Amino acid sequence: MNYGFIIDNRKCIGCHACSTACKSENEVPLGVYRTWVKTVETGRYPDTRRHFQVTRCNHCANPPCVRICPVTAMYQRADGIVEFDASVCIGCKACMQACPYDAIYIDPETHTAAKCHFCAHRVEVGLEPACVVVCPEHAIIAGDMDNPNTEISRMLGVHDVTVRKPEQGTAPKLFYIDGNDFVLHPTATERAPETFLWADVIPLHAAPPKPGSVAAPPPSTQKAKSGVAIRPPQRQGDPWRGPIQIGGGRMAEQMVQVSYNAQHKAPWHWPVPAYLVTKGIGTGLFMVLALAFGLAVAAFDSLTALAAGFAALLFTGATTALLVYDLDRPERFLSILYRPQWRSWLTRGAFLLIGFSAVAGLWWLLEAAAHFGFVDTALAASWRPLLLWGGLALAVGVATYTAFLFGQAEGRDLWQSPLLPFHLVVQALAAGSGVLLVLDLLLPMPAALTSFTLLLFVGALLVDLFVTPAGEFSMPHASELAAAAAHDISHGRYRRHFWQGSILLGHIAPLAFVAIGFFVPVLLPLAGAVAGLCAVAGLYFYEYAFVMAPQDLPNS
After folding, report:
1. CB 76 within 8 A of CB 83
2. H or E element that contains 201
3. The dihedral of CA 466, 468, 474, 478: what is its sign?
4. 195 secondary structure, DSSP code
5. Helix, strand or coil for residue 235?
6. pLDDT by residue (tens digit) across 216-263?
7. Residue 207 — very low, low, confident or very high, per pLDDT cuts 50/70/90?
């Protein structure tokens, strides 16, 4: 069996009966949707046409949401239905990033992922999904596509059908007859200013406008919990805005206008860029120490090893804390360990974090015991190379696994960068050596180790300064969404995070401080520490823009 849907847009009248039936049948809370009807108007008055699109989970034959789920909460049944198990979901929201169709949401009551599940409880007893039964025009057809006797199988054989985003390779099983490109492709319509037929949309992740500002709605405006601001009727004395109002007072004269759609919140916010920074610091510190001591670039210094090793463990612990904090069901975090889904890089990353913490922690404990005379220093020296090189390999794995996790987030094209693993290692070396320079101000290191750290710090910054603007943003991008997100970072909404935060504060300023310290050696410890702090701050600005910009682009 292989279940799928057909939406016959020749018949759909946009009545929203399917959305209502879905909410009623599955007890979907207000503010979230398993099925919704997107409406787009094309043409110029009076020659206009309204297009409807029933939107929901595509029950892909190659579902990226299943691969990325760390605990098998999202899974594919033998009959092709992509189902979810709310009882084990940890609320990591990775499946929402993996879905190219905005079909998954976090249930505000259970705090777990949810979506259309083909009304599997009805299908199992021989009934059709609720949306199929309630549609007054028989515009929704569902059934077994492998059975030649079913209506959906016959219709697929005689009608030309389209799917959303076939280039993603997900093999969606939600087919549209007479699908309109302006409705199927979310970037085919102008999204700014964000207006609908009856409302202006306030971005849900943005701060509310100040009263009296141009962007602020008038005092009598009603604001719904969904973030939609409803304009009041035109009052006497107001400027004339035409007989037909579109959103912010524009007349219905544009060629394409999204009249109705469901809003989707950005799943990941500040904890994710913060975790990228703390992870870079923790792994970077250990990598610098392992390279310096392992390659005998600098003589082993017990006090430096203890201070920097403790800082590496502290920031690695902060990384884990941020990951758990960002979960909507943090009490279920340990289920990654006892019911792991090994295709997910979230699962692999969790085990890499545990392995790195164990090896780095064992090394630190052994060095601390030797330093305070609890074990023989020769014993610590004999184990040191093995633990340092083994920890280095794990540190590189921890630094880079996020690149592969972002690669599984197929709904965000900018994150599908082949440069990302290398970029994350360079960022970790810059952050780790930068924090080590801060420690050098508080607890002076041996001169050879300071020189090596400075050299590594400057080299990582220079490489990153080339990779970031030239490699990540100047090269042509593989898709329209990736190019749009990159433009938003370099020239759009996040340009200040990028140019002033990342480039100026995070790269130019640190290099300038190091140069000052080079020409005025007495200022070198202070200049190096300030440079390290600037680099870490700049890294957060970059990661914030990199994480948020792709989420601002619509997938539906």
Report:
1. yes
2. strand 200-201
3. positive
4. B
5. coil
6. 444 443 333 333 333 444 444 445 444 444 444 444 445 777 877 877
7. very low
β-strands 200-201, 174-177 pairing: unpaired
Closest by Cα among 117, 135, 89 to 333: 89
Residues 6+ apart with CB under 8 A from 475: none
Distances (CA, A) of 215 to 193, 252, 254, 331: 11, 21, 22, 40
Q: Which of 30-44, 310-324, 334-348, 428-442 has the lowest mean pLDDT?
A: 30-44
Written as one string, the DSSP assignment of 275-338 is: HHHHHHHHHHHHHHHHHHHHTTSS---HHHHHHHHHHHHHHHHHHHHHHHHT-SSGGGTTHHHH
- pLDDT at position 526: 96
Whether pLDDT at 86 is above 70: yes
462-514 confidence digits (pLDDT tens)? 999 988 877 777 778 878 889 999 999 999 999 999 999 999 999 999 999 99
CA angle 294, 356, 339 (to 5 degrees): 155
Residue 537 CA to residue 84 CA, distance in Å, equals 39
In angstroms, rounded to a whole number, what is the distance separating the alpha carbons of residues 498 and 469? 9
Cβ atoms within 10 Å of 42's Cβ, excluding its own = 18
The answer for residues whose C-beta is within 8 angstroms of residue 115's C-beta and 6 or more apart is: 34, 56, 57, 82, 84, 103, 104, 105
Q: Are strands 245-246 and 113-114 parallel, antiparallel or unpaired?
A: unpaired
Q: Is residue 144 predicted with pLDDT exceeding 70?
A: yes
Pairing of strands 3-8, 174-177: parallel
Instruction: Identify the three-state secondary structure at position 236.
Output: coil
Which of 55, 56, 99 lies closest to 74 in space, CA to CA?
A: 99
**Cα distance between residue 170 and residue 153, in whole Å:** 20
Residue 273: both structure tokens together:
């860029």
Amino acid at 108: P
The single residue listed with the structure tokens 């964000």 is 194
Q: Which residue has the tokens 């600037």?
A: 534
